[in-house]
Amino acid sequence: MYKGLLDYIGELERRGELLRVAAAVSPRFEIAEITDRMAKSEGGGKALLFENTGTEFPVLTNMMGSDERMALALGVERLDDIARRIGDLLGEALTPKGSLMDKLRALPLLAEVSRWFPQQVSGRGACQHTVYRGEDVDLQRLPMLQSWECDGGAFVTLPMVHTVDPDTGVRNVGMYRMQRFDARTTGMHWHVHKTGARHYDAYKRAGRRMPVVVTLGGDPVYTYAATAPMPDNMDEYLLAGFLRRRPVRLVKALTCDIYIPEDCDFVLEGYVDPSEAKVMEGDFGDHTGFYSLKDLYPLFHVTALTHRRDAVYPATVVGIPPQEDAYIAKATEKIFLAPIRLAVQPEVEDLWMPTAGTAHNLAVVSIDKRYGGQAHKVAQALWGAGQMMFNKYLVVTSAATPIRSYGALAALLRRADLRSCIIRSEGILDVLDHATATCGFGGKMALDLTETDLCADVIAVTLPSEAHPAGGIELYDARHAEDLGLVVLYAAESRPDSVDAAKYLDDNGFRNVKYAVVFDYQAAGTMRDEDLLWLAAANTDPRRDVLLTDGGTLIVDARSKRPGVGANPARFPNVVMSSQQTIRLVDGRWEEYGLGPRLESPSRRYRKLWLSDRAEW
Description:
Distance between the termini: 47 Å
């Protein structure tokens, strides 16, 4: 594997996966706009190394933003190679050993596993070459990105946050964004469901200050491991050791007993005091494609800052998909499929989380169907398993369905008996889910397509020769009427508080419509199919916004929800995008960057969705 981030950068360059930008660029808005254009280009574009950032450190973005770079980051040619290794390992480890010879054959497996465990080494690591303590610490020296026009400030976006359970001594490495407040403090964005928050609560009960160490960079496998949905109380560096086929070498932090990878680029040491009042953090343009709005989070005090001699600052840009995190999620699908089968649902054959679902909103799973009601069992089990508990919409198919094939899924959805295949529930949602009125809790819905008859006749949708506004609906788009039975509706430009899609369909003579999804008028004509799927999943709570009419049409209200009206959330965020000023700046400087033909700004496509001049409506 890699000796550090520079080693990985060298490999990217050798393979033609890296572009260097020598021109001076600003970490405030400019780097994010350039990266957003690159990330949304074909195949995820290239990794970008900004060499002149106004600080002493270069910035690396989009480093795992393609299938090829994601595999390279994990040291393989194809991600399927890792999935196969895990499957073989679990199969060998769990096969009953009946004879002495079988048990002896398993000894090499045990020896291999023992080589993955992290190793604590004495002395300082490369990450501790340059040291600043106390008042010499200045976080302004780091090129933290302020990505979007309504962000509350500059953020650390790829931190590996190390905490230790005060009761068990078990380490956790998680990824939680950190807003820089001043030279020596940041926010610590610990959601209530995350392990970091659980450790924080434990220190609060004990009345003790909580040591925290944040690292950035090093072997990119560390960054991936910090995002992985590892079981609680399981060391992320064990996963990293497995992926890199050698143990992670750890050195002791300078000011506490937390151990960190010796080859990282930056280390921020400090503490969180649970007796201290939480501070207002945000707004932040998040991976959901919407702003996560201001809220109270713990304050992280940085008492020491160290870095490598040749440090490179790694950052990611999140926002409307696709972004770099889509490829990280794709790796997780493959790597954790075998453990899901083992620990949660042995009948699961495949799992797919479409990019438009921003990891949690949408999932499709195929199962080995053997008995009635099995899809209900799988849905409920997945909704209670690890980070799958955040899933909002789930489609369950039989094992014969290639779930990544649009044609195969469309054929099932077109023929689904919606009166019998809908599974409704309530449960935990991501704290970042803005559509629910009860933070972190809301509706869930699954479609059981395991018994859908692909030979069933399809009744064609009848469309009107001319449609007139009715029920607060202005326009319709029937491009998917034939393949999905879907009609897309656009509400009036005035953004009415409520609409009656069924009235619009009935008054205009639509017949046999299976699905109708209502969007804001402002989305008409500017959104691609992927964008509309993203909006539909993000802007809805299934318990409030999805209904099945007596005529068998599933109607989804995917409009922006006016805050405080009816069962709507009290706050509703804006879509994430660059300002017009930033777009013009990057357009005007594009030739200076040396990145080839100009890529258009994706933000232009979403400008009409803007609700106000703030992060929220």
